[in-house]
Specification:
Elements: E1 10-15, H1 23-36, E2 41-46, H2 48-55, H3 62-76, E3 83-87, H4 93-104, H5 107-111, H6 114-122, H7 131-145, E4 151-153, H8 159-175, E5 184-186, H9 215-223, H10 244-252, H11 255-266, H12 272-298, H13 301-329
Parallel strand pairs: 1-2, 2-3, 4-5
Bound molecules: iron/sulfur cluster.
């Protein structure tokens, strides 16, 4: 029998299994989730239905991606004894709640979500003109409200989605019955890790450092990374505050190194290659324990299946309770 702590606040958050994770996932989500798992009753799901919104045409690898993602999560330190780690599509109640919430969500709310237009403009290699893509914030709302989450650990760009979830939950509570608490965005003070070109790190922008990259490949990518655009030649002074490489220093380098970069970039005393070499070395060092742990989990795929199954059962237990309440609220029970 699964025990759920009654005195801990809940969080819910997922990740789309669309291939190998990158460093943005580790810094932007996984490290936060690991830090929060003692404090909150955490529900984390592999958002495979969300993956379909953009990757519906080829689902041949989705099963491998699910397993790989769970391996990455465990390697990063998520503990299945503390957090409920599961696969979204294994809990079909998510789809039912999504359907009901989609009925009460005005179209205008979805059309004004900033990531909707931003992604349609930036993602050139996929068709995002589908109904599912417009509606994915409603599915997100279902994922969050299902577990009556009090908070959602997100990056700045996802804050509008949490706001929308609150609006949808509020509308449900007003139309039918007080059912859902209002989740708050939980922004933690981790500096943003941009992609190699300074934009948000994303596989679809081809600007990511993947967890499968070798140290040599990481160095090659960082070597080619965008810097302060005003620093065109070696003797031009630069400004670390506008340089994406410095954003990496903020996360991976010692205080001493950061001070050296802040001082000597501005006088052109150091070159960008040295600066990039320092950050690449400390990044690889930081990543090594995760990659070592990953190797161990890869050889235990049977255990991973068991962990997923157990997480699915624990999530379903809560989801079934919530859906009973929801059906009663909308008079669709019995
Ligand atoms: S020295 Fe470092 S911080 Fe300065 S512009 Fe070059 S890469 Fe960026």
């Amino acid at each position: 029998m699964v025990q759920f702590s009654t005195n801990k606040l809940r969080i819910s958050s997922g990740m789309r299994p669309t291939g190998q994770l990158h460093l943005g996932h580790v810094v932007g989500a996984l490290k936060k989730w690991v830090a929060l798992q003692d404090q909150y009753q955490s529900f984390h799901f592999i958002a495979d239905w969300h993956a379909l919104t953009s990757d519906y045409a080829d689902t041949s690898k989705i099963n491998d991606y699910r397993i790989e993602m769970m391996i990455d999560w465990l390697s990063a330190g998520l503990d299945p004894q503390k957090s409920v780690l599961f696969v979204q599509s294994a809990v079909p109640e998510h789809a039912e709640l999504h359907l009901i919430l989609s009925m009460i969500t005005p179209l205008g709310w979805l059309e004004r979500v900033p990531t909707y237009k931003e992604q349609q403009q930036n993602v050139a290699d996929k068709d995002l003109g589908n109904y599912g893509f417009l509606g994915y914030p409603v599915l997100q709302a279902a994922d969050i409200l299902m577990y009556k989450a009090n908070a959602v650990p997100v990056g700045e760009d996802q804050v509008p989605h949490v706001e929308l979830t609150r609006e949808i939950g509020r509308r449900f509570n007003t139309l039918y019955k007080e059912t859902f608490p209002e989740p708050q965005a939980l922004l933690t003070q981790v500096p943003r890790l941009p992609g190699l070109d300074g934009r948000k790190m994303s596989k679809s922008y081809n600007n990511d450092i993947s967890l499968s990259d070798s140290p040599e490949k990481i160095w090659k990518k960082i070597k080619g990374m965008m810097t302060d655009p005003a620093r065109k030649r070696r003797h031009d002074p630069g400004n670390p505050d506008v340089c994406p490489v410095y954003s990496y220093h903020k996360i991976y380098s010692s205080e001493e190194t950061k001070q050296v970069v802040q001082r000597d970039c501005r006088t052109a005393k150091i070159g960008c290659i040295d600066c990039k070499n320092w950050v690449s070395t400390s990044l690889v060092k930081d990543l090594t324990p995760l990659l070592d742990s990953r190797k161990k989990y890869v050889s235990r795929k049977g255990d991973i299946q068991d962990i997923i199954k157990d997480g699915n059962n624990r999530a379903a237990e809560v989801a079934k309770e919530t859906m009973q309440e929801v059906r009663q609220a909308v008079k669709f029970s019995g």
